[in-house]
């Protein structure tokens, strides 16, 4: 009997140091592996049991290509960064959350000391440690350690599934902030993927009067029309100027849109966008595509367009995203296509790559 008890004790002790994770070795080569359970490295840190993780386009890109720009997967890396979870341990100095709290996880930790960080633009930190961006592991794992101020407590009526979508919603919040949308303005959003749809929803929450969703997939436009867009448009394989002219005519955007957001990264969409935005308007590049493209620079100059990039999220974006969900101003639940078990993570990646559904969630390995 003693030997059985000792064996059970050893198994229990070992389990405390096990952390099942979904790991990318190289393109199309993934595995499940136990990694050490994180420990708290600071009295301000918390340990979170990951409940749900969404699949982002960047995750799929790493899975397919093994790289995004200069970020190259050279060693095995845990995937995932759109996550929610439950606090299981807190450091001695933690005040904002407690054990048992349900939180949305902001997956990047900046240095907090550089000029961008001190100016409130920590998303531009050169020393950012961002989940599932080489060489840092992601959140498709059992437990995740995080600074307390990058964990956002979810209100009781907000589900953990909704909490996993706070990350892409924060991306959309940042993009729409860059676009400087004001009540009564008009906006065109290129791309009706998750971020594009959320940009439409955030623009609506900001008071935009006309929101045009543009995509080549009819099913996505049908969803966009029910979700947050006031108008939809399907481009054709013609010159960007022709698509722009037809878009403006069909949607009644006389003189162009106040702001155009590209959430696709597709070269034709970017080209069309510049011809759609009004003189003196704002263009925001939110989607990532090829490193270099042909760009209508003459139109940019003669229309005196303000052109901005948008990268992840900055100060206040996550907090506002949680408030949008909590208040019902943005419905993220409608984007959730389904949830799969942790052991089915690879199939979920395949489905997302094939364009099935809008947002697929993967339950954490400890989620029952």
Automatic annotation (TrEMBL):
* Family as reported in the entry's similarity comment: Belongs to the zinc-containing alcohol dehydrogenase family.
Q: In which pathway does it act?
A: Carbohydrate degradation; L-arabinose degradation via L-arabinitol; D-xylulose 5-phosphate from L-arabinose (fungal route): step 4/5
Top-rank taxon: Eukaryota
| Obligatory cofactor(s) | Zn(2+)
**One GO term (biological process):** sorbitol catabolic process
Q: Which UniProt key words apply to this protein?
A: Metal-binding, NAD, Oxidoreductase, Zinc
> What does this gene product do?
Xylitol dehydrogenase which catalyzes the conversion of xylitol to D-xylulose. Xylose is a major component of hemicelluloses such as xylan. Most fungi utilize D-xylose via three enzymatic reactions, xylose reductase (XR), xylitol dehydrogenase (XDH), and xylulokinase, to form xylulose 5-phosphate, which enters pentose phosphate pathway.
Identify the EC number(s): 1.1.1.9
Q: Which GO terms describe its molecular function?
A: D-xylulose reductase activity; L-iditol 2-dehydrogenase (NAD+) activity; zinc ion binding
Q: Which Gene3D superfamilies match?
A: Medium-chain alcohol dehydrogenases, catalytic domain, NAD(P)-binding Rossmann-like Domain
Extract the InterPro entries matched here: ADH-like_C, ADH-like_N, ADH_Zn_CS, ER, GroES-like_sf, NAD(P)-bd_dom_sf, SDH-like
The name under which this protein is listed is D-xylulose reductase
Task: Give one Pfam family, short name only.
Answer: ADH_N
Q: Which residues form the Enoyl reductase (ER) domain?
A: 29-362
